[in-house]
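Weekly sync, protein design subgroup
Attendees: M.S., D.O., the rotation student, P.L. (late)

Item 1: inverse folding check
M.S. brought a backbone from last month's batch and wanted to see whether the design step gives back something sensible before we order anything. D.O. pointed out we never logged the input encoding, so this time it goes straight into the notes. Structure tokens as presented (94 positions):
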């Protein structure tokens, strides 16, 4: 299975970014989790079809209204499914 881990930096906390990421992930049929980092960034891990993951990354690069995305770091990897649905966590879930 295709997986992507992404760290989004900028004005991304306190603007609904995690809820936006969850909605986009669900809309695209992905599974994963998104959480706030202590350094002010938002991090997400998602899994699914490669094309859907690419669309997810495009959405995160834009972010919701009120966000100001400055940098996006992406790491791709392969492996078995790790998630059920798409969830929002307050902090790193593992």
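Designed sequence read out in the meeting:
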């Amino acid at each position: 299975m295709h997986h992507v881990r992404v760290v989004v930096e900028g004005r991304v906390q306190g603007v609904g970014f995690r809820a936006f990421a969850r909605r986009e992930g669900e809309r695209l049929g992905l599974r994963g989790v998104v959480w706030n980092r202590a350094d002010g960034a938002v991090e997400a891990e998602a899994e699914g079809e490669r094309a859907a993951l690419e669309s997810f990354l495009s959405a995160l690069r834009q972010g919701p209204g009120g966000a100001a995305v400055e940098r996006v770091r992406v790491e791709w990897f392969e492996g078995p499914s790790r998630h059920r649905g798409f969830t929002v966590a307050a902090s790193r879930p593992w």
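Discussion: The chain has two helices and five strands. The chain has one domain: 14-89.
Action: P.L. to compare against the previous round before Friday.
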